[in-house]
Amino acid sequence: MKSVAVEQGLTPVKEYLRQQGCQVVDMTGERQEPGVCAVVITGSDKNIMGIQTVVNNVPVISADGLSPEDVYQRVKEYIH
């Protein structure tokens, strides 16, 4: 299964994604492991969003204002 990289500070999102069967990895810097299908960020730093999109060439989901369930619904679109 492809994994989802999640930024620090989103523990409820990480836990919910794991409960739904997603493989969750910590977002560390600008590069991620191969197989990451999406990146979830807090949304507090808008610059990181552009960096992650270009470097990883994967969708970036801002969790700002979203519940863990809402984030999962968006992640589901990218997990195949």
Which labels suit this protein?
80 residues; alpha/beta; four-stranded parallel β-sheet; 3 helices; 21% strand; 36% helix
Q: Can you offer a commentary on this structure?
A:
The structure is a single chain. 36% of the residues lie in helices and 21% in strands. α1 packs across α3 (68-76). The chain has helices at residues 11-19, 46-56, 68-76; strands spanning 3-6, 23-26, 36-41, 60-62. The model is unreliable at 48-54 (pLDDT under 50). It is globular, with a radius of gyration of 11 Å. With 80 residues, the protein is an alpha/beta fold. It has one domain (3-78). It contains three helices and four strands; from the N terminus they run βαββαβα. A four-stranded parallel β-sheet has the order 2-1-3-4, with helices on both faces. It starts with a strand and ends with a helix.
